[in-house]
Each structure stands twice: as structure tokens, then as C-alpha cells.
Amino acid sequence: MAQQQARYCSCGTRLARDNRGTVCAACLRRREATAATQPPEVPAEFWQDERLREALARWHIGSVFHAYRTHPWHGRVVSQETVAGWLGLTQAQLSRIESARTPPQDLGKLMSWAHSLRIPSDLLWFRLPSDKPAEAPEAPPARTAQPTGDLLLPVVVNGRPVFVPVNAHALAVSGLGSLLDRSASGTDAASDMLSTTERDAMSPLDRRSLLKGGVVASLPGLSTTDLQRVAAALHDSRRYLDGPVVAHFRSQLEAAKKQDGTKGPRATLPLVLGIVGAVEEHARDVNPTVRRELLSVGADGAEFAGWLYRDMHRPDIAGLWYDRAMEWAQEADDPAMQGYVLLKKAQMAYDDREALRMLTLSQAAGHNRWKLPVKVLAEAKQQEARGLAMLGEPMADVERRLEEAHQLLSRASQSDDQRQLSPHYSHANLMLQTASCYIEAGQPARAAELYGDILASGTVSRRDTGYFLARRAFSLALAGQPDDAASVGLASAEVATATDSLRTKRELGRVMRTLSPWATRPGPRALREALHA
Fold first, then answer.
1. pLDDT (tens digit, 9 = 90+) per residue, 236-264?
2. How far apart are the C-alpha atoms of 206 and 212, rounded to whole Å?
3. In sequence order, what are the beta bridge partners of 8?
4. Fewer Cβ atoms within 10 A, N terminus or C terminus of the chain?
5. How many CB atoms lie within 10 A of CB 197?
6. pLDDT in tens, 464-488
7. N-terminal to C-terminal alpha carbon distance within the chain
8. How far is residue 294 from each of residues 248, 461, 499, measured CA to CA in Å?
């Protein structure tokens, strides 16, 4: 019988054989003695736990609480009553927060709870009051200086403020910051980070009229005259909110979609939510024809907001926006958008590994009643193929659906996609998704080769390149090529960091779990260090 390897507590005491935890009895008693009044002092490696990291990446404070309570370091699960006492909550309140689909967004409470649990500020998605920049010699203020760093921008959507993470530099450059009103939005910290030049540039506009319309994000890229027209439309919807202004909203939404592939969701989401908020606030005050046009734009924006939240790994919020997109598309009598939202829900089902739901949603999206553009029909067939592969159906059935997708795509032309639904979808995208089908069908080496060929062509956006590099790393790891997987994973991690794509980082987490048998090799070790940096 093999001798059991000795295990030790962090204090150096050898653990008893019947102790299945990581803490000796003496340390456990000391922790329990202080647990009633305050959380324990945890080591730095405590925050490297995979479940805790994932909870923090999801921006769900309830998931963070649960991961903290069940962390192996404690030796045993910390009760909800105990943690609630540390946070100034009741057990029932903590239970509701942990199980909520949409977590609390009150910035003051988030800050207080983070301080109580001593969560490192660099892991948080919001900024703590104590996060002060290092002192520097006094210098005259430069009016051209650009603000840096991330902040939470409150955007009024559906009648309530939604905190949106945004880079302050991107905020100023895009023109969004000029419409922040300190008295109305309460964002003193955000406002202070904007330059005086940026604030004064929008002085001809009545900022309060925009805020009354539920919008604290402007429409960058328009001239001063155009912006004044939009502001007037928001102030007096029935008189001014005509076709040209609706066209402004649509053009700005298309511009946001184009920048998403390079700038990522943090820089894009404020504008999108601003447009959607304007649509919801003012669609009630216009004639029926303009209302339908507005709701069509709103459905498009809500669907795009759903995608941005997916990219930030917030499926709970993404699902709400997809539901809103479907509701508006139905009222606007927009069948193509309804089918398109079903397709996006099928993609979300894949994110959650719900194979059967993905298959049936993909089949529903491909129904003739939606009158979808040919490109979207091709994408629906490809998603159907992936669902079949996930369910273990014969490879011949999978490849038959893929061939149907290729045939549909070969018939598509630019004129077929006037609505700009899936405008990016091309043979390269179809081949990338075909590689995903090969992974699900148990052919990872074939998938890795196909990913490599398409990514080498340089036809994929920067953000999507990062994601599919992660997919290629995953397929290489499954194929038993750990060094190549780690090398590709490192390239993916660099892009994921630059574009703030938590979806890509989540995929890299799958890569690391697959590489666990080779964890001590230099390549996988370097990838793990890069992801935890």
C-alpha cells in the first residue's frame, strides 16, 4: 500500500490523516474565534482561486460572496449568517444577493462590501475610494491632458441608471463625457476626470434636455448642428423626431458596431445604451410610422447590447436585452429581427453548453416565416450543425448541414443584406464555426488546422481573432499538443486584454483546465502566469 504523502497547514503544522481540509485544528479554532466579528486575513494566493476569479470576472457580487464562502482555504464552508454579519446584512439578504440573476449595482454598497472582504482593488470592476494615484510633484494643469483609467458611467435605461464600465480616455475622445451632468447623474468622480476643453466643447447644447430624455451619452461623430437637432428631438419628440433623426440613430449604431471589433465592449456600450434609452423614452411621443421606425432601431440596438454583455461575460443581462429586442421587433412588425434574435439566443445556449436548446433555437431561427437574409440563414444552418455535433449525432448529418450553409452563403450578395444583419458573416466565419463543429465531434486536430488556416488569412477582426485563437489553443490542448496550445493561448491573452473581451478570457480558462496534465511545463506555466497577471 502506497504511503500517504504528508500535508501541512500554512503555519507549518502537519495535518492529521483524517483532516481533509488544508488548515490545522489550532488555526481553524483561531479563525472561528474571529469569524463572528470580521473576515480573516487571507493570503495573496487566496484570490487566485479559479471559481473566485470567474465570479469577479462576471461582475456578479453575489457569485463573489458564494465563491468566497466556499473557498477551500477556510477549511469548511463559511455560513451565510457569518458573512452577512461581516457585511452588515441579514442572512436572508445575502441569500437573495447570491441567487439573484441581476446583482445589486449600487456603487456605494459594492465599495463597502469589497472593503469589508478586503478584495484587492485590481480584481474589481469598479474603483474604490482609497484607490488614489501616487503623489507626484505639482505641475500646472494641462488642458490637453487626457484622462485615463476605468470608471463606471451611469446610463439611464428603462427608467433606471445602469452602471457601465468605460475607459475614461475613450470617454473623452469619443465625445461621450461632454454630456455628463454632475447634478443630474451624480458622477462627480467621472466628471472630474474629463478635461475642461472636452466639457466646454459641447456648451452650445442644452445638456439638461438630453438628461431629461434619459440619455447621458451623446452621439459622437455628428456636427454641432446635428447634435443640436438630436437634442431638440429628445426635448420635443413629436415635433422633431422625424425620419432624418431616426437615421442619425441608426447610422451611429452602425458606427458603434464597426468599432466594437477593435475597441471592445467597454468603449462601445455607453453609446449603444444611450441610443436605446432615447428610443424607449421617446417612442411613445411620436406618430405610429415614426414609432415603428424607432422601435426597429431600438430592437437592433437592444440585440447589439445583448452581444456586448455576452462579450463581457454577463449572460444574465444579455438575455434581458435579447428579450427586449424581440419585444420591440414584434411591435415594429420586423420579422427578420425576430429570427435574428432567436439565432443570437442559440449562440448564448452554446456559451452555456445547452446543446438541445441550441439546436431547437437554431432550427426555429431558420424558419421561412422570418424572411431572413441569406447570410443569416447560412449562419442558422451552421449553428444547427454545431448543435447536432454536440448531441453526438452522426458526422454525416453535421456535414450535410454545413454544406447547406456553404450553398446558402454562395448565393448571398451585398444587396441581400440591406438590414445589416450579420454583415460580417463570410466564408471565413463559416469555416471558423465549422472548426468548432469538429471540436464538438471529437476531431480537435482537424479543428486546430482549420482555425490556423483562417486566422492566417488576416480577414478576422482583432477582437474575434483573440477569441478564435483561444478556440484554437483549446483544440490543440485537446489534441495533446500542450506547448503549441500555450503559445497560441498567450497570443490570444494579449488580444483579450487589449479588447476587454471576458468571453475570450473565459475560453482561455477552459484552455488552462485542459492543460492541467501539463501544468509544470514551461509553456502552460507561462500562460497561467499571463492570465493571472
1. 444 455 667 788 788 888 888 887 767 77
2. 10
3. 14
4. N
5. 13
6. 899 999 999 999 999 999 999 999 9
7. 41
8. 11, 29, 30
